[in-house]
Known about the structure:
Elements: E1 7-9, E2 16-18, H1 43-70
Antiparallel strand pairs: 1-2
Amino acid sequence: MLLREFVHFDNKHTEPQDDSRYISQNDISVLKQSDLRKTRLTLKMLGDIRRASEAHDKEYQEELGLVRKMYAAPPPEAAPQ
Length: 81
């Protein structure tokens, strides 16, 4: 898990904002050493995982667009001679 999945910095705010993808009340996955069985994933858990994955992919595409813009070749008229 990435830290940015727990803490979200918005472009307009300099303070960290709560990210709606992680809900701490739903995190009951504390395991003990004596636990031998695997936890079962419910449909709700799978949906939460899917939504988190989609949000991560969307953030990645936005960052990729920014990187492409940052490292794009300058237009021919603005190129130094």
